[in-house]
Amino acid sequence: MESCFFLLLLLCFCSSIHKIFTTTTDSINTNQFITDGETIVSSGGTFELGFFSPSGSSNQYIGIWYKKILPYVQTVVWVANRENPLTNTSSAVLKVSKPGTLALFNDKNETIWSTNPSMSVQNPAAVLLDSGNLVIKDANDGNPENFLWQSFNFPTDTQLPGMKLGKNLKTGHEAYLSAWKNVDDPTPGEITLHIDPTGYPQALIRRGTKVSGRAGSWNGLRWSGEPTPPVQVQNRTYALQFVFNKEEVSYSFSLINSSLLSRLVLNKDGYAQRSTWMDQTKSWQKLNIPLDTCDTYSLCGAYGSCIMDSFPVCGCLEKFVPKYPQQWEKGDWSEGCVRRKPYHCNKEHVFLKYSGIKLPDTKHSQYDKTMTLEGCRQICSRNCSCTAYSSLNISNGDRGCLFWSGELIDIKKLFGRGQDIYIKMDSSELVSEAGSNRKKTEILAVSFLLLTGMILLGLILILYIWKKKKKLKLKEEFELPQFQLSTITRATNNFSVNNKIGEGGFGPVYKGVLEQRQEIAVKRLSRTSMQGLDELKNEVIYIAKLQHRNLVRLLGCCIQGEEKMLIYEYMPNKSLDSYIFDQTKKKLLDWPQHFHIINGIARGLLYLHQDSRLRIIHRDLKASNVLLDIEMNPKISDFGMARSVAGNEMGAKTCNVVGTHGYMSPEYVVDGIFSVKSDVFSFGVLVLEIVSGKRNRGFVHQDHNLNLLGHAWKLYKDDRSLELIDKHVADSCNISQVLRSIQVGLLCVQRHPDDRPSMFSVVQMLANENLLPKAKEPGFFTERNVFDEANSVSHTGSSKIEFTITLLDPR
């Protein structure tokens, strides 16, 4: 209790120091400045400007962030000196000086960053507006829109409401987004987002100088590449604005509900990410753009059409064929397609209509804002270089024309939301299409008259027998409700990327909602998955026969054609690792909730080992395989690697070692021997991770090179176990429960399996106050060195991602 009290006292003292040395203002005037610890706050209190260091970095910057959500997460929206970081802010200042310059000076009084004002004034002032725009203005000028300089003209990776992206056609100045180099380094990376005015304006994402993604041209309502209006637009959360005149081409958005926080962020992976702050979850709701593989620029080449739900995704437009068939069959679509029948400019030609597509790249296009669609056809028909035309603006009927010359690049099929384009073709294509249809009709009619009876009878009989056998086989193997593919497709919005909630070795996991409003999680077997039907059957066979409040519930499965899916109850709070290892979300769980989760996992394992119809050994227990329901009750999941043992057997031996580094017991890794005591070892690792908030693999300490187990053992021997507890739960800790949990965890990770307690004993130890036996040295209690870390199978790190692995036993 004294240790917890001392820790709380220290935290309160540190908090008090911060408050004493932090001051705020709403502006700085001539010769005034701010230093580290001082900030400028916008008039409405939404934004704050000051010195900050990204998480995991010692470099320091001047930036703007959301002040309203600062207790939950620091979200930086603009950085001044992103290319010239400070290493010491003890004497650094941000200062306003005549004739209107805002400059950042380091401790040597050297200029690190400064603005270039548009004119000179006598009394300049720097003001942070409640829009997040940092402006320099004449303090004596009453015009609120008269700015000498503004940060909105020089964005970093974030577009805020009211900020224009695009180009001033009079001055040539361009405002565009450039992603951070890394999550802890705001230096401009190679990913940029532009509103390109070449030809007809369109939104492009570039990687270096090459285009990597394209949202399409503006059609009066949205970018033509958007399959459906964003959810926020449908719900009238924000409105989009596009301006294209002689002075500027720009794109911006404004919030209809001014109380919301919303922004567009370009990340280092090449995604433009729309984020909206959710007060209920105290987190950002995110939507990635581009949304799928088909948004990769020119994936299918000229006249190729990308269809996300097809395999392969690339196909030629109708009446077009691959330019190089052999390359096309091998999956190389870069050379695209050509007309099946070439057309000649001086011969008769027609325009064929292609509907529901993302319009091609408009870099080599021309436009007319007033012409009708019929006028477009006439102009394109007379122009030898014109290859296609489309309507320019669909906001109020079809108005204006967009003309293409040369090949059509970057076409994507958009079901229900795309536009129409008219492509110039040889006139024989129209005639041959009619003749071909007539001939096909005649052949089908004759075939139908001659073969209908025999074929239909045979097919009906075969189909009946096949379906009956299939249903019997599925029933025998799975004993589970079977879901129709159409039902799951509707529930997951056709497996939309917006519904994707995770990814594992088996494949992606989607959230779905059935017609009865029941929420489900759908685990879909990926074609590239290292796991397959055997693992799916394995998971079904075991989990379908298990019923316990601390095991995830399997609702059914779907096996139809190439699709293989498992349908589970939906866990809204996702997995345990997303809380205990996340510096922000771990603050949402106090110690009673931690202890509740430890007890729930223990009871779930006890059921598997002792109380279920089968004695189940999970073999892959880890933080990411523990899901949390709406009430934060833990539920063990992912039984793809599980095995059962018969009767009174406690384990077995295998040549295929499966599991996750850091959680596997020594006897399993070295000799391939798995048992219920292997799960006990994994549970012990998990308990120590929950208490400490640190991963076993990747754990680092300034005083030694031990892993988390070794560190916990060292503290235990020195009677300093309380130092292991995560500081975020220190103020809510129960000393007795913490010490008992740590000792139980160490008992579970002892080197020899016979020394480890059974899960029945573990549940009793956690529930009672009886004296616990002394723990012995844990397994894998070895000191690491730099060479070992550099040459390990999986590199360690403070925020590593765990993978389930399969290794052959070296015997």
Could you please describe the fold and organization of this structure?
- The protein has 811 residues and is α+β, with helices and mostly antiparallel strands.
- The protein folds into 5 domains: 23-154, Agglutinin, subunit A; 156-291, Agglutinin, subunit A (Orthogonal Prism); 295-431, no CATH class; 485-569, Phosphorylase Kinase, domain 1 (2-Layer Sandwich), CATH 3.30.200; 577-808, Orthogonal Bundle (Transferase(Phosphotransferase), domain 1), CATH 1.10.510.
- It is built from 15 helices and 48 strands.
- The strands form 13 sheets. It has an 8-stranded mixed beta sheet with strand order 27-26-34-30-35-32-33-31. The protein has a 5-stranded mixed beta sheet with strand order 1-4-5-6-7. Strands 36-37-38-40-39 form a 5-stranded antiparallel beta sheet, with helices on both faces.
- α9 packs antiparallel against α11 (676-692), α9 packs antiparallel against α14 and α11 runs antiparallel to α13 (735-748).
- The longest helix is centred in the middle third of the chain and has 51 residues, at 428-478.
- The chain is flat.
- The model is unreliable at 1-22, 230-235, 785-801 and 805-811 (pLDDT under 50).
